[in-house]
């Protein structure tokens, strides 16, 4: 995606149940924990033009082809 100029954001790699202060560390949620480190965020903001959205979609399609 970098080669195509599409920025992928990697954030929030700590799932909510593992955040300190919430007293939820005792939960075992392996799928949630895996998704937290494997997922990325696509560009989304109000100023994103339709042609830019289409470009992102096409880049995703190309990646999975």
- Overall form: elongated
The radius of gyration over CA amounts to 16 Å
Number of E-type strands: 0
Number of helices: 2
Mean pLDDT: 90
Low-confidence stretches: none
Order of helices and strands: HH
Name the beta content range: under 5%
The percent range for helix content is: 25-40%
Number of domains: 1
End-to-end separation in angstroms reads: 13 Å
Largest beta-sheet details? none
Structural class: mainly alpha
Give a quick rundown of the structure.
With 65 residues, the protein is an all-alpha fold. The chain has helices at 30-38, 50-64.
Helix and strand topology:
Elements lengths: L29 H9 L11 H15 L1
Notes on the protein architecture:
The chain has one domain (16-64). The protein has helices at residues 30-38, 50-64. It is elongated and about 45 Å long. Helices cover 37% and strands 0% of the residues. By secondary structure, it is mainly alpha-helical.
């Amino acid at each position: 995606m970098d080669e195509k100029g599409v920025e992928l954001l990697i954030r929030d790699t700590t799932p909510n149940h593992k955040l300190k202060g919430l007293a939820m560390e005792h939960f075992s949620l392996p799928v949630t924990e895996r998704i937290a480190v494997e997922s990325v965020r696509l560009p989304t903001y109000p100023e994103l033009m339709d042609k830019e959205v289409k470009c992102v979609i096409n880049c995703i399609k190309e990646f999975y082809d």
